[in-house]
TrEMBL record, chains A, B:
Coiled coil segments of this chain: none
Keywords: Glycerol metabolism, Kinase, Transferase
Keyword Transferase recorded: yes
Key word Transferase present: yes
The protein, known as: phosphoenolpyruvate--glycerone phosphotransferase
Enzyme class: transferase
Chemical reaction(s) catalysed: dihydroxyacetone + phosphoenolpyruvate = dihydroxyacetone phosphate + pyruvate
Entry's Gene Ontology BP terms: glycerol catabolic process
Species of origin: Orlajensenia leifsoniae
Assembly notes: Homodimer. The dihydroxyacetone kinase complex is composed of a homodimer of DhaM, a homodimer of DhaK and the subunit DhaL.
One Pfam family linked to the record: Dak1
E.C. numbers: 2.7.1.121
GO MF terms held by the record: glycerone kinase activity; phosphoenolpyruvate-glycerone phosphotransferase activity
């Protein structure tokens, strides 16, 4: 196992310390329990949004803390849900009196621990809502979920709900926007290589030299099938088909296309994927009007990618375009 | 070889097409010969800046084309210098009448081909200057260079010279700023794994399961030594020592610290590297006042990182902070 780490026990804390030091203009980190909040948190009168989950998916979620997106993020141990304590602490730290929205990826541990934290926060008089993201069409139930998994579409929920909160929408409205984005986004991924959880020290699964896993989860959970490696365009078609069929997307739709790297795949390949995905959508009359390409929801050093397609309307487009200033997404301000 | 590609011959063209489609608000691409320019190029009366080199280092250079940075970029084949033709075409396409600066990484082929293109452009009445970057302290001469290699420090040259051009500096002044940044930045890298050039199909070098290469080049060229894998903090110290000693940097200096991923290393590890690099500099009285962490000058899917340290003054800091709007770097506008 070759990793740029010191002690596996300290991966999350050391990485968090580096992140907070490199981005001290945007965020501050607290330790024991660990969480990240906007440097200027709380914002009085604004709905606050936090998200969280196991570490190893960076820049998700701490990389999205800042103006126009998240107010806070709660990183658990690698691929492990954060406990209620830091979720509660982050909720308290960001509350500006207008309520707090929890954006939670659908994994059993995450959902449970965010619920417990929400109950504790409510007992202290903080109004909390939750939106559970479940955009992964690969499998119905999985190792760690009842129902579909929450994957890279979560980034789009966080950006668009964050913009709604930033413009002053109230808690009901921000929650409704987050639900709407989750309802209109679908994702699916593929792995060319496994990843290694530092404290485990060996791959959580193996793939033969000529094999890839279609429908991979962001923790290396099994997907739909293992197949022989194919040309990029063929892989794109395998992933995009189930995404388009699910809602279904239809001719005339305007969409945001996210090509998300899993961590170990270079940008030069992600753009090859983007090219064909946009072509395939265009051939079906689906117009890509907004795009995002890069590593946004990763699985440590896994090689692979996921596609997410979000159906846009004027409101979602305007919120997507709104200024954002975070470590991993910035524009317009 | 598992890569998300179709035919190895088409990697650069397909990736370029995907890049240009995903970022059509910022850039346009031309083919045969291949180059990328700002969507609004040329900008009348503004000094234009182009850079280029072999592909496989994305987002370098096309990812830095846009407001406040590069006017154009010329991607060659993977790890292969672009020929004079596309360099000349890009130079013509961006010339707004105030001259064109070529920012060239110090590799023999790049330097020669940019010189030839500059001569051809001059014959057409375009005033061209060149700055050759050579920030890599690892080796004095290498496989492909006389003198030091140009590596990730090039990004800092491009950003800061780009800001000078955007504020209206003339060709002499922009050239002087680029020279100054190159003179004040030093870099060094390390590889944990090799990378595979698509048309070669196999790694250009091999490393044992417990070995790393200190001083690696961005094409996998040999560095200073191969050692056994060490904890991240020890590796950081090995890389940072020669950087600090080279200029040398001294107590009281304010610096920009760039932790650059080589392509296959996850962000969670890059922040562990950042944390200790900033600590080591602080212990020597060198204050990190600006930071950049991410994949900016890559070597395909290589695992590893480089550190770059740039000595700042008020002018360079102001130019660094100036608005920039490119695919890979954005803020403040």
């Amino acid at each position: 196992m070759k990793k740029l780490i010191n002690d596996p026990k300290n991966v999350v804390n050391e990485s968090l310390a580096g992140f907070a030091a490199a981005h001290s203009d945007l965020v501050r980190a607290e330790y024991d329990p660990n969480y990240v909040v906007r440097a200027d948190a709380p914002t009085a009168g604004k709905v606050a949004i936090i998200s969280g989950g196991g570490s190893g998916h960076e820049p998700l979620h701490a990389g999205f803390v800042g103006y126009g997106m998240l107010d806070g993020a709660v990183p658990g141990a690698v691929f492990t849900s954060p406990t209620p304590d830091p979720i509660l602490a982050a909720t308290q730290a960001v509350d500006g009196g207008a309520g707090v929205l929890h954006i939670v990826k659908n994994y059993t541990g995450d959902v449970l621990n965010f619920e417990t934290a929400a109950d504790l926060a409510a007992a202290e008089g903080i109004e909390v809502r939750a939106v559970v993201t479940n955009d992964d069409v690969a499998v119905k139930d999985s190792l760690y979920t009842a129902g579909r998994r929450g994957v890279a579409g979560t980034v789009l929920v966080e950006k668009i709900a964050g913009a709604a909160a930033q413009r002053g929408d109230d808690l009901d409205a921000v929650t409704a926007i987050a639900e709407k984005v989750n309802a209109q986004v679908r994702s699916m991924g593929v792995a060319l290589s496994p990843c290694i959880v530092p404290h485990a020290g060996e791959p959580s699964f193996t793939l033969a030299e000529d094999e890839i896993e279609i429908g991979i989860g962001i923790h290396g959970e099994p997907g739909r099938e293992r197949i022989k490696l194919e040309p990029a365009d063929a892989i794109v078609e395998r992933i995009l088909g189930p995404i388009v069929e699910d809602i279904p997307f239809a001719s005339g739709d305007k969409v945001l296309l996210l090509v998300n790297g899993m961590g170990g795949t270079p940008l030069v390949e992600l753009f090859i994927v983007y090219r064909h995905a946009a072509e395939v959508l265009a051939a079906q009359g689906i117009e890509v009007t907004r795009s995002l390409v890069g590593n946004y929801t990763t699985a440590l050093e896994m090689q692979g990618f996921s596609l997410s397609v979000l159906k846009l309307d004027d409101e979602l487009t305007e919120l997507w375009d709104a200024p954002v200033q975070t470590a991993a997404l910035r524009w317009g301000r």
